[in-house]
Amino acid sequence: MKVFGLAGYSGSGKTTLLEELIPRLNAAGLRVSLIKHAHHRFDIDQPGKDSYRLREAGCSEVLLVSDHRWVLMHELRGAPEPSFDEQLARFSACDLVLVEGFKQTPIPKLEVHRPSVGKPLIAGTGVETIVAVATDEPAALAGQTSLPVLELNDRDAIADFILRHLEFRQ
């Protein structure tokens, strides 16, 4: 299983880019999974539903299963967030795990950068695992990075870069 991440500030378009890359990577024959790091409290369960009520009653894990999908919810209840490697170990076999967030984790990453967001490049600020930058304003990055700069709206070129970087394609 290979791992590749997307890093960037909020509002840069990481999730939108992933939505458009995943079908292209699937079309290249890859089975793709994803880890998304949330910086805030979130809940995928709905108040009032049985699973929510039982989890709130004190279950450490609740497994919901149907003929279409399953989901395992695990309550940390004060325990530390699992390490990145522990999270990866939970996945079923796949070819590629895409990662949104975890910018300090030592995996190859594409930085998604929009100058209009008003934030500086992450590349070159101590995050050594960024291998390229995708931006909607390539000319604005002239002289700011020695990394490959990809046009953010050229989804095919970005998918091809990832496939080549991970050696799925020559």
Structure write-up:
The chain has helices at 14-27, 50-56, 84-89, 155-165; strands at 2-7, 32-36, 61-65, 70-74, 96-100, 109-113, 130-135, 149-151. With 170 residues, the protein is of the alpha/beta class. It has one domain: Rossmann fold, CATH 3.40.50.300. The strands form 2 sheets. Strands 2-5-1-6-7-8 form a 6-stranded parallel β-sheet, with helices on one face. The chain has a two-stranded antiparallel ribbon with strand order 3-4. A hairpin with a 4-residue loop joins β3 (61-65) and β4. The mean pLDDT is 91.
- CATH architecture tag: 3-Layer(aba) Sandwich
- Strand arrangement in the largest pleated sheet: 2-5-1-6-7-8
Structural class: alpha/beta
Largest sheet: 6 strands, parallel
Q: Report the sheet-strand fraction.
A: 15-25%
This entry's quaternary arrangement is single chain
Tell me the count of domains. Answer: 1
The helix/strand series, from N terminus to C terminus, equals: EHEHEEHEEEEH
Q: Tell me the overall shape.
A: globular
Count every helix, treating DSSP H or I runs of 4 or more residues as helices.
Answer: 4
The CATH superfamily turns out to be P-loop containing nucleotide triphosphate hydrolases
What's the overall average pLDDT, rounded? 91
Radius of gyration: 18 Å
Q: What distance separates the N and C termini?
A: 18 Å
Number of strand segments: 8
CATH topology: Rossmann fold
Q: Report helical residue fraction.
A: 10-25%
